[in-house]
Specification:
Strand content of chain A: over 45%
Order of helices and strands of chain A: EEEEEEEEEEE
Largest sheet of chain A: 6 strands, mixed
Radius of gyration of chain A: 13 Å
Distance between the termini of chain B: 31 Å
Oligomer: heterodimer
Order of helices and strands of chain B: EEEEEEEEEEE
Helix content of chain B: under 10%
């Protein structure tokens, strides 16, 4: 079975500062990893995903994440936070490829302050 | 806008009642998954349908059941509602089993 742990249920950054959201996974086989964003009263939007190949993955809205097998991590970063980045972020893992049968973390609420 | 639509958007039911939630997949998508997202939690996988057959189920009791129709739209049925069933129910469709899933905006179910 696979699982995901997101460290920090709430993260607050200043506008223009670095965003770092942490995700560690547990999996018995090579996983597929995802980051999703959820705005209030909306569904989930895919930010980026790691399947195979390059371990540094670039996504939408300037976000990127690096798959580190030795650390079982897939942390999400953005060099400069914008007010519009305020939302809830979920890390997810699946063994089946694509984006199906996902196991999600508990989420990190990102607050961006002026 | 993902092309996945769910209805209704909000619903209030009484404990013990039954509820049906609906999902219209993106055109051509033959795979649909349902998730339950309780307040303050991440989504939890309920089950998946592929070409009208159940293709995997999470840790949910049998009173959670589903259907997928020939046009690949889907229903989630919950019998004997409990207060803990109050949650946002998300539907996600994909072109195939191993391709990206696109999520709808969800149905907010409140059980009183």
């Amino acid at each position: 079975a696979q699982s995901v742990t997101q460290l920090g249920s709430h993260v607050s950054v200043s506008e223009g500062a670095l965003v770092l959201l942490r995700c560690n996974y547990s999996s018995s086989v090579p996983p597929y990893l995802f980051w999703y964003v959820q705005y209030p009263n909306q569904g989930l939007q895919l930010l980026l995903k790691y399947t195979t190949g390059a371990t540094l993955v670039k996504g939408i809205n300037g976000f990127e994440a690096e798959f580190k097998k030795s650390e079982t991590s897939f942390h999400l970063t953005k060099p400069s936070a914008h007010m519009s980045d305020a939302a809830e972020y979920f890390c997810a893992v699946t063994l089946t490829g694509g984006g199906n049968k996902l196991t999600f973390g508990t989420g990190t609420q990102l607050k961006v302050e002026l | 806008e993902t092309g996945v639509t769910q209805s209704p958007t909000h619903l209030i039911k009484t404990r013990g009642q039954q509820v049906t939630l609906r999902c219209s997949s993106q055109s051509g998508h033959n795979t649909v998954s349902w998730y339950q997202q309780a307040l303050g939690q991440g989504p939890q996988f309920i089950f998946q349908y592929y070409r009208e057959e159940e293709n995997g189920r999470g840790n949910f009791p049998p009173r959670f059941s589903g259907l997928q129709f020939p046009n690949y739209s889907s229903e989630l049925n919950v019998n004997a509602l409990e207060l803990d069933d109050s949650a946002l129910y998300l539907c996600a469709s994909s072109l195939a089993l191993t391709t990206e899933a696109f999520f709808g905006q969800g149905t907010r179910l409140t059980v009183v």
